[in-house]
Amino acid sequence: MKVQEFKTGKVLVGRIELGEDLYQSIEEYCIKNNIRQAWVNGLGAVTHLAYFYYDQLEKKYIQAHVDERLEILSCIGNISLKDGKPFPHLHIVCSDRKGGTVGGHLTPGTKVFACEVIFFVLEGASGLNRAFDSQTGLNLWQCGLGQ
Ligand code: ZN
Questions:
Q1: Pick the CATH number of 9-141 from 3.40.50.1010, 3.40.910.10, 3.30.1330.80, 3.90.850.10
Q2: Predicted TM-score (pTM) of this structure
């Protein structure tokens, strides 16, 4: 395991409003406010869910949608730098009225009914960068490089 040290910085608490795109509103906020590293948690409800499932053998993302009103049981993830730009990596688990769950890797296209979000900003001298990893086909953290 490679590890990189950060200090905890600001804690930002926000509300994403009805009709906003969950992924894009987090991404836009981080870009506008130069939030380069953070841990993110969210709770609330959506009117439409869009997510990816990553096929590890095919090394590709499979898009899925649920056009239903769902509770956000957990939206969790992080912000780090991809190509020098703040990049949200977020996963989401939602439930329907029977308590059935569905989830995956959050993508643009998820429409918010209401959402409470909290950012735990991380501060460090060098950024937390992502780079393409050919073994997994994913853009992974480059922890410990450039320190
Ligand atoms: Zn993911």
A1: 3.30.1330.80
A2: 0.94
